Structures are given as structure tokens and as C-alpha cells.
Amino acid sequence: MEGHSLKSRAIVFAVCAGAIAFILALFATSNDRPDADSAARALIAAIVCAVLCWAAAERALAQYAGALDQAIARMTRAAQGDLESAVPSAVSLCVPELADSMQRLFGRLHETLGNVQRMAMYDPVTALPNRTHFRQTAEALLADREAAAPAALFFIDLDRFKSVNDTLGHATGDMLLGMVANRLRAVGDRFAHDGAHGAPLIGRLAGDEFTMLFADLADPADAERIGRAILSALADPFDLPEREVRIGASIGIASRPDHGASLPALMRAADAAMYRAKEQGRGRAERYSTTLAAEIADRAQLERDLRHAMEREQFTMVFQPQLDARDGRVVGAEALLRWNHPAGLKLPASFIQRAEESGLIVEIGEWVVGSVAATIARWAALGVQQRMAVNISRREIDNVQFFHRLRAALHGAGAPAALLELEITEQLAMHCSDAVLDAIAALRADGASIAIDDFGTGYSNLARLRELPIDRVKLDRSLTEKVAGSAEARTIAQAVINLVHGLNCEVVGEGIESSAQADVLRVIGCDVLQGYALAAPMDEAAFLAWLRLPRAAAPLSRALGR
């Protein structure tokens, strides 16, 4: 009967029952001599039996259909989210196998949805609320309290977690994050158990960033005490399977209502305070303050001004000559960025850091690339043979595409690479990637020269320095500023100059502020000099005119005006 409906089965059952009743009645009433009369009586009995069987089957079908209707209705409610209600008793009575299957299905769905919710709302590594759950819960906690009710938000950033992740692996890093979470819970429990504060809400926002909200803070002054407790807990060593590690943390603290009443306002304030803690040396807790707020506003305004400067083409290049220490010839010029701000000319020191933080250094770098290529092309057309030195920023040294774009811009402008010199600071040069070194080597193969800038401020690996494709080394002004008056300073400077000469590189002394400095550096072997005592930075037209002056080819004493 597989494939047939229940109703058709009931009909077959009634017909079969009637047929059997007909046969039995016929044999019972015919006395072994069936006739029409006995057949009629047997037929009546068969019809009655069939009708009764059909009625019984119809009643069973009605009960079965009702149970199925209730099962369908229950499944519909389950699809709408109701997994708690019991399976209807009619289903359990009429179709127990179906009822049992439904109950198991609802149980598994409930368990699965619970797991999904936990994954969506809790961090799987630390079992703390994730960013979404923390924000929702924190907003609800703050909304339940008066706007003036004191609360404190702690933004916690681990200081040396990345090094642990990089050296010991992500599995060990996850284990460490779990230990950090446990220590934060312990700090929260300690302050909650003293009776003065409610239990804090702790969350992991992302990576090595954690938050802790005390929505019930009896005394706002306790925020600093809690901050110190967190620092102390995270400063202790962590005993990992491979070794013991120390990480520490930087903490930003924002208080309600002083620093905002809403969670977004508190998080912005705590985040800013945390970055201030990192700037101040890490391993400390900083409260948000009006001074910090003013600095943030200034940085935001500076970023807006920088964007306007790009749109209004307010940047320009100036050039400071570099002179041969032996005869005063101009051998090059360092290209320096200037900002023609409406309030006055701004030097890079006043805006480069913010440009790097905001990412605007990329756009500024693109402008510099185009400007350098166009300027070198103009100089080459005028017969200028002096090289142009260009500083490479931290963001650019990490981006191999910058060097590819510079090379392409030189080719596109028809600018000879031989007139270009790239200046890379000592510290950045020590950490160049192989891809960046290959890109620099390609520019050098085209004719460009490479200089190490600010030499003497870092901790150079001499073997690494020997491997770098460099032509010149610029001494930091800290090595040259006292050579005229200090024998010790002269000895150190001369030793460094000899070291650089041993690497077959020229030495450039920058920051020359007096003729005495220039004379001493020339005597102890410096090859090229640069500084305000020789010439101040000037725009392109002034520099080209300065090149044509007789003093540009005179001995150094005349170039210095003596």
C-alpha cells in the first residue's frame, strides 16, 4: 500500500471487510445451498460491516488528521522562534514516533541557536562579551541610571602582545588572552566584593583591546585606584607553556558624567586617553582631561587643514644647497617640504606626524613624487647637474609601491634618475623589507643615489649597513653641533667619518650653523656640508639664481662669506 493515501487505504479496508462478511454470511445462511435469498441476506450483512468499518476508519482518520494539523501548527510556531512549548498531546497519542522526533528536533535547534548566539555575542577566546554584546549591554546599563550617576569606563590595550603572538604563535597568544581576561575578572570581582561598587562589565573589543565598565561607581576618585589595580595585575608575569612573559598594558579612563553621558562619548574619551598613555611611555593609566580634549580638537583641525591644503595646492618645495667641503662647489640640494598655510609658512615638523597618523602622508607623498619628477626634468633641461635629495617618510619606506611610482614618474617626465638622491633615516634603513630594497636597488641602477639620514641617532648594524645599496651617509646634527668647541666631539665625529669612508661612502655634515663647524668638519674629512651657515632653504627660482652666483664655485671660505 506504499504510495497510497490514508483515505484510499480506509476504503480498501472497508471493502475487504465487507467481502469477508459477505462470504461468511453466505456460508452461514445457505445451508450449503446458496440461493438468491441467502445471497441477499449475506449482501446486507456485508454492506453493514463495510459501513461500520468505514465509519471506524473515518473516525481514526479524523483523529490522525487532527493530530497532523496540530503538529503542523506546532512546527509553524517553532519556525517563528517558539522552541520551548511542548508537542501537543494529540500528536503524542496518535503519532508517538512523530512527537518524539519533533521533541528531539526542537531540543537540537534550541541548543544550536544557543551556540550561535554565544558565538555572536561572546568572544570565543576569552568568553567575554564581544564588541557588539559589550556595547548593547553597556548602553542598557547606562540608560537605566541617571545621566549624572557616576560611572567609569576603562579602555585597556596590551603593550607587548604582538611580540608574543609573532614569536610564540597564535595558539599561545590566545592562551595569553584568556589569562588576561581571568585577571581582569579577578580585579572586577575584588572591587565588586568590597561593597562599594557593582560588578563591572568586561569585554574584549578586538585583538589586544579590552574594556571594563563600572556602571555603579560609588566614588569617582576610585577610578584611578581601579586603573592602578589593572596595571598591577597585568604587569605580573604570565606563565605560558613555553616560557614566562611580561606584557603590561596602557589604560585610558573616562568618567561619567565629566567626560560624557553616553557610551560612544565615553569610549571616544577613554580611547584618546589610552593613546596618550602609550605616547607617555606605556605601562600607565591616563584620565581623559580638558587638555587632552583640546589637543584632540587641534589634531582634528590640523587634519582638516591638511586636506584643504591638498585641495588648494598649498604645498611647495624649497631647496637647501649642499657644498663640497673642499672647494665650496654646489654638489646638490635637499628638497624640503613647506606648507603655505593662511596663518603663515609651516615646517614639516608641525604637520608630518599628523599626516602620517591620518594617512594623508600618502597623498602628500604622491604630490612630492610628481613635483620631484617635474623639477628634475626642468633642471636637466636647463643643464643643472646638481642632484636633488628627497626625504622618505616612515609610511613610504614601508610601501614598495611608492618607489615603483617614483620610478614611473621619473620615466614619465623624462627626468634623469642620476639627479635624484633618496634620503632614508638610519632607523628605517635598518628595517627595510627585501621588496623595498629591491625597489631602491632598481632606482639606483637607473642612476639615483641613496643616502642614510640622521646617522648616529640609532643603533646601526654595521653588517646590515654594508649590505645596503647606499652612496652617502648624513651625520646627525648631534654629532656635528659641538665639534668646534669640544675635542671629544671632534674625536667621535672623526671616528664616525672614518667608519663611513671605510664603507666607501661619502659623508655629509648637516646642520652647519657656523663657519667654525664647517672648517673643523672639512679638516677631519667630511666631504659635503649643508646648513644655514652656508645657505638657507630657498624656492626653486632663488636656488637656480644662487647657482649662477660666482660664490657657488668659489672656495669654501668664500662660500661662507669670509
Topology at a glance:
Layout: H1 6-29, H2 36-79, H3 89-94, H4 96-121, H5 131-143, E1 151-158, H6 161-168, H7 170-193, E2 201-206, E3 209-214, H8 222-235, E4 238-239, E5 244-245, E6 249-256, H9 263-279, E7 285-287, H10 290-311, E8 315-324, E9 330-341, E10 344-346, H11 352-358, H12 360-381, E11 387-391, H13 394-397, H14 400-413, E12 420-425, H15 426-429, H16 434-446, E13 449-455, H17 462-467, E14 472-475, H18 477-480, H19 487-502, E15 506-509, H20 515-523, E16 528-529, H21 540-547, H22 556-559
What does this protein look like?
Helices cover 55% and strands 16% of the residues. It has helices at 6-29, 36-79, 89-94, 96-121, 131-143, 161-168, 170-193, 222-235, 263-279, 290-311, 352-358, 360-381, 394-397, 400-413, 426-429, 434-446, 462-467, 477-480, 487-502, 515-523, 540-547, 556-559; strands at residues 151-158, 201-206, 209-214, 238-239, 244-245, 249-256, 285-287, 315-324, 330-341, 344-346, 387-391, 420-425, 449-455, 472-475, 506-509, 528-529. Helix 1 packs antiparallel against helix 2 (36-79) and helix 12 (360-381) packs parallel to helix 14. It is built from 22 helices and 16 strands. The mean pLDDT is 82. By secondary structure, it is an alpha/beta fold.
